[in-house]
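agent> fetching stored inputs for the fe (ii) ion docking request
agent> found them:
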Amino acid sequence: MIILEILAIFLGCFFLFNLILYFVEPSLIAITFSLVLRLFYKNPPMVDLEKHFSKHQLLKDNWRTIQEELIELLKNENDIPKFHEVDKIQKFIANKDQAAWRVFMFKAYGNWQEGNCNKAPKTTSLLKEIPGITTAMFSILGPQKHIPPHNGFYKGVYRYHLGLIIPKLGECYIINGGHRYDWKEGEDILFDDTYKHAVWNKTEETRVVLFCDIFRNDLPKIFQPINRWVYGLREKSQRLKNVLKNAEVQVDLKKEPHAPTATKA
Ligand SMILES: [Fe+2]
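agent> prediction call returned; pasting tokens
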């Protein structure tokens, strides 16, 4: 009986806490929801692509087309914003070593960045064919970039990487939850970024992957609609609206080409 009372008090406090969050900053409910998922659902750090993101094949089959558009964009690489310029909260992980980590954002937290999408229409139309993608971007790591160990906080999505431009000389890899993966062009992976992970580009070349977050399809049924609702709350966050605005590449990359920087084809 006492246990039931304690449980009722706990659930009441949890509900009240989330209600307060809803009125103060709705997107923070994502933190408590993630905690609940961590308690009730376990998964390995690297997850099965076919099982959890079968539509990846469309992107993988068309990786050369995506790469061609990317190479065009990279002719003006310096006009693509750095990650911490798009989202200041990323400064610790994105700019600790001053080496560049640039992001060409297609979709952020459920919203398309139409200005950017128009600059890479073929990639955009592929992405738009796949429901469940919440965020999508070209993640562009400069030479000798290191992203220090950190944990993603939202447990309701899995992270997808498709290798597009991968250095040939030297090591370039991610370690997630103790598992090392060396990117390969045209090859993809899916993982849970809430495990501790870090990245090294120990080369003098640029590395680019297509980076997507997708809704998890393996949560218990009751959590699926809650996951989408909680994720939707994030769209109301002023910070995330700013992310979308900051992510726009401000020049017409095709009409105003700058002197190309050293990138690898
Ligand atoms: Fe990360």
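agent> quick read of the result: The radius of gyration is 19 Å.
agent> awaiting further instructions
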